[in-house]
Amino acid sequence: MADLSLRPASFWTQANALLRKNVTYQKRNIKTNIRLISFPFILCILLVALQAFINSQLDKPSNNCGCTCRDTTGDGKCEKVCGLEYSDLDQAATCPIPNPPEWPPLLQVPAPEYRAVRTDFIPFTDLPNESCRSLGSCPATFLFTGNNQSLGKILVKNMVSTSLNINTSDAVDSLATGVAGSDTYPQTNNFLDPAFFSGVPIYNVQSQCFPNSTVSVSFLESAIPVQEEVQCVQGFSLWRNSSSEINDELYKGYRKGNPERKINEIVAAYDFLNSNGNRFNVSIWFNSTYKNDSGQTSIGLVRVPRSVNLASNAYIQFLRGPGTKIIFEFVKEMPKPGTKLRLDLSSLLGTLFFTWVILQLFPVILTSLVYEKQQKLRIMMKMHGLGDGPYWMISYAYFLLISFIYMLCFVIFGSVIGLKFFTMNDYSLQFVFYFLYINLQIALAFLAAAMFSNIKTAAVVGYICVFGTGLLGGFLFQFFIQDTSFPRGGIIAMELYPGFALYRGLYEFSQASFTGDFLGTNGMRWGDLSDSVNGMAEVMIIMFVEWFVVIFLAFYVDQVVSSGSGKSPLFFLQIFRKNTSSFRRPSLQRQDSKVFVQMEKPDVLQESEKVEQLLLEPNSSHAIVVDNIKKVYPGRDGNSAKFAVRGLSLALPRGECFGMLGPNGAGKTSFISMMIGLTKPTSGSAYVNGLDIRTQMDGIYTSMGVCPQHDLLWESLTGREHLLFYGRLKNLKGSALTQAVEESLKGVNLFNGGVADKQAGKYSGGMKRRLSVAISLIGDPKVVYMDEPSTGLDPASRNNLWNVVKRAKQDRAIILTTHSMEEAEVLCDRLGIFVDGSLQCIGNPKELKARYGGSYVFTMTTSSDHEQDVEIMVRHLSPNANKIYHISGTQKFELPKQDIRIADVFKAVENAKSRFTVFAWGLADTTLEDVFIKVARGAQAFNVLS
């Protein structure tokens, strides 16, 4: 076992230890995990139940295809007949349509108030004046260009008829022969063209309009009665010198119409290119700048067939004369079966709800990391040899596995219960998206953990981010996505916030599944990422790049801020420095400190000189050498700086237990904190096995054990599991590990009665203390720090603990702080009394008592009448006696040892008993407690005077 512990644990050994600990910890938190995973399950079930309820409400006669009762056979019996002709507009959408109605092809014509006019920013004077908008008389403008202007003018003239003769017996055919248009917004199908049911007129584009040119027509289209007004609109054709001019004018003519819709002021534009009598070549700009209710652009039908027909007819008439014409009678949709009205809530509400579902992992990971930081468990693991590499790898993989299982259960369960959000979108695309985001989310949690030290604060901030992101995404960010006029760069800038990137990706999945379900097509596929409207590609690129940037920043900040005492912001430059494992020679500044040391006691000065000599030696048998170390806390709120440690020098060989005594606030814990890497010294340094605590703590940790002042334990791990974990970090394996754990448990009296396998959270304070001591000693560390190890122990446990520490002193250096003088005398080979940040004296207990305790304490209790007799007796024994206590007949005196003999004291007491009643008396040698009090009071008095 000893041979194994001499070698630091390898990377993979440390990783294995942490992984085993995390798996064990996870098993103990199975109920928490079930509650975590149940949240998306409950939400998905709620969506399914709500969707079933809504569908049941939608599946009512008022929402189904209309029906009536008819006598179809003439026998007087009523037969139910359903069809489009018996339905209102709400019912018609669910009817089967074996023979779709035929609708005249239409142009997309802007409404009168949005048609092109002359303005300050459009540099074309041939447009009509803006006053036509108030009169509703603005023409419908067409633009044209080409290599041959004269040919272009002929073709454009042929496009627009001079008049329209409506045949009331065949109004549909009459509209087909004219140039009909509408300013309504087309739907995703042509079963019921909104132009014929919107209540707004149908426009007929003519070369000239006359008064009273509005005609009212009625016709029956597929058994559907239609009543419409046909209104004449003047077609206004304007020549432009190039296609770039047309592009510029179309762009400038882009105007907002109704609150969530946009239109273009121009009906259409034509570039006849190099067309002539032998060649017809044309490019057509068509008006499709509307936006439908789903928030997606260009997923509805586009009214472009009539524009193509006009150009084709115009060229044929140019070649064959005005009598030649291609009749474009109608457009119609494909037949459809009967359907039921359904609403896919998972796609409609999934973006917001699923954002919350995925984001709730963030505070879970964040609080787990902050918990280790707040409880100082991370630094505790580090002090027992766990490197940053294994910690980051295992912790990251651990959270990634938890997140992956969480998301896998979420997607599988959502798919099993039939949510279209999952089933219609490509699973491989979903996998890549979720995998990228959970990695980015874990990296963000590591970065955020460096900014928090309190788990409650971290939890509150984390859940504020969860719900705030969802609400801002649903009620702010989504409107920017749907607003096609909003700059794309602004959208990308907002997506740099990971929560909005997640929301945008879920929004794209939602829209794809909703539209696919409505149209009967597929959801999102990999090929859809090339669509300029689809933002999934840019979101995944942003998340991928941010993942690497954030994980790098998180590791850097962790090294500078969170790893014990922290490192220099330029710590990565240390690889260019020459590393040294031997003691450094003292700097010239040590000579200045020597002047101060000379004012100290000779034993302290001697220790300082010993340190100077050791620093000059290339190798040393001393495990710990402290070189004039200081710790100063800067003053705040007008208070002066606090000197916690004032130039301490100390040398500890292997096999020695050094005890630090001192009152509360003397600086003992501050000194221990510097030695174990929790804080950095203000000046000076210390060397542990030849390694500098300022720059080489990672190397020191591999051979160090710590029993901190406060127990740093995982509440849900047992005592045995704690020792197994820390034993593995010290490179113990197999039977050696099992044996070391059992011996440690037996040594601190935690082996019997099932205590070893009880969770540490159920331990008493004394049991936790004993476990902390066992942790500090497992794995044969060469240097051990124990900060008040016996606090809270009963006498029996304390004696057992002392025996453990006594056995542990062999071949290792131990620094122990305590307030128990008995413990210090039993365990410590040497003692140092620390007062107000300074070492006042140093030596073994006998030396200190001899040096500072050169007197006996004589105590006698009599009646009050004989107090004076007692004092006379004592003065007779020693004229230099000093009364130190007096109350109700009891008096204490300090008697210098050189003034008296013990036999004389006994003789004087026997003589006194013959003269008056003596209730009690005693003669005691100076205790270590007396020495401590004397030194502490003297030092404090000196500091007050100075």
Automatic annotation (TrEMBL):
* Domain of life, per lineage: Eukaryota
Q: Which PANTHER family match?
A: ABC TRANSPORTER A FAMILY MEMBER 3-RELATED (PTHR19229:SF154), ATP-BINDING CASSETTE TRANSPORTER SUBFAMILY A ABCA (PTHR19229)
Q: Report keywords, A-Z.
A: ATP-binding, Membrane, Nucleotide-binding, Transmembrane, Transmembrane helix
- Name one molecular function that GO assigns to this entry: lipid transporter activity
Q: What is this protein called?
A: ABC transporter domain-containing protein
The record's family statement is: Belongs to the ABC transporter superfamily. ABCA family. CPR flippase (TC 3.A.1.211) subfamily.
Name one cellular component (GO) term. membrane
Looking at the record, the residues that make up the ABC transporter domain are 624-861
Q: Per UniProt, what is the membrane topology?
A: Multi-pass membrane protein
Please report the organism this UniProt entry assigns to the protein: Carya illinoinensis (Pecan)
Where does the chain cross the membrane? Answer: 36-54, 348-371, 391-419, 431-453, 460-481, 539-557
Q: Has keyword Transmembrane?
A: yes
InterPro entries found in the cross-reference section: AAA+_ATPase, ABC2_TM, ABC_transporter-like_ATP-bd, ABC_transporter-like_CS, ABCA
Task: Answer whether the UniProt record assigns the keyword Nucleotide-binding to this protein.
Answer: yes
Q: CDD domains per the record? A: ABC_subfamily_A
Primary location group? membrane
Q: Where in the cell is it found?
A: Membrane
**Which Pfam family name is an example for this entry?**
ABC2_membrane_3
